[in-house]
Amino acid sequence: EVQLVESGGGLVQPGGSLRLSCAAPGFSLSTSDVSWVRQPPGKELEWVSAIDSAPNITRYAGDVLGRFIMSRDNAKNAVYLQMNNLKPEDTAVYSCALGNSWPPQIRGQGTQVTVSS
Question: Mind listing the pLDDT tens digit for each residue in 24-47?
Answer without folding.
Answer: 999 999 999 999 999 999 999 999
